[in-house]
């Protein structure tokens, strides 16, 4: 078994939907990015790719490529799972931490776990999603952005 780690951060801006863990969350601001800017899934994809030694999401889905403009990160995650399968790997579990002052994501975690688990091909109980604040410190504390960390375990080969 192999383990990978991922991190992502995006700026909060008005006029964009807020998508975290594949779930749209009501908010006056969303995350700025080339795709839907889902920091939770971006961190997870980097963790999965890193575990398999396959680089990072910027390598596979460059922000300069118009093909990925506005992409749904659940679709990108499906592609990452496909890349793992081509190399003989499969996801086992993942653990994601979202760092944001608001909104509170607790009510949305069950849906996130279901959606991510379905794409990874694992039971939702194998998908851990936690949230914390930055205690009003730094860019996250000033509510300028949201960050996420992820670890993922893969098996195979």
Oligomeric state of this protein = single chain
Find the structural class using helix and strand composition: alpha+beta
Shape: globular
H/E element order: EEEEHHHEHEHE
Strand order of the largest sheet: 4-1-7-5-6
State the distance separating the first and last CA atoms: 9 Å
CATH fold descriptor: 60s Ribosomal Protein L30, Chain: A
Question: How much is the average pLDDT?
Answer: 97
Give the CATH architecture: 2-Layer Sandwich
| Structural domains: how many | 1
Query: What's the alpha carbon Rg, rounded to whole Å?
Result: 15 Å
Determine the fraction of residues in helical runs and give it as a percent range: 25-40%
Keywords: Isoprene biosynthesis, Lyase, Metal-binding
Family: Belongs to the IspF family.
Pathway: Isoprenoid biosynthesis; isopentenyl diphosphate biosynthesis via DXP pathway; isopentenyl diphosphate from 1-deoxy-D-xylulose 5-phosphate: step 4/6
Protein name: 2-C-methyl-D-erythritol 2,4-cyclodiphosphate synthase
């Amino acid at each position: 078994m192999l383990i990978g780690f991922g991190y992502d951060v995006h700026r909060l801006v008005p006029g964009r939907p807020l998508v975290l863990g594949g779930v749209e969350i009501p908010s006056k601001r969303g995350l700025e990015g080339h795709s839907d800017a889902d920091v939770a899934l971006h961190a997870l994809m980097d963790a999965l790719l890193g575990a398999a030694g396959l680089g990072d999401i910027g390598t596979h889905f460059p922000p300069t490529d118009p093909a990925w403009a506005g992409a749904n990160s659940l679709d990108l995650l499906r592609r990452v799972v496909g890349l793992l399968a081509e190399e003989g790997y499969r996801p086992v579990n993942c653990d994601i931490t979202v760092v944001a002052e608001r909104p509170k994501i607790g009510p949305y975690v069950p849906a996130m776990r279901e959606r991510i688990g379905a794409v990874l091909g694992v039971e939702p109980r194998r998908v851990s999603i936690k949230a914390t604040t930055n205690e009003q410190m730094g860019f996250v504390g000033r509510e300028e952005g949201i960050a996420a960390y992820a670890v993922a375990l893969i098996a195979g080969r």
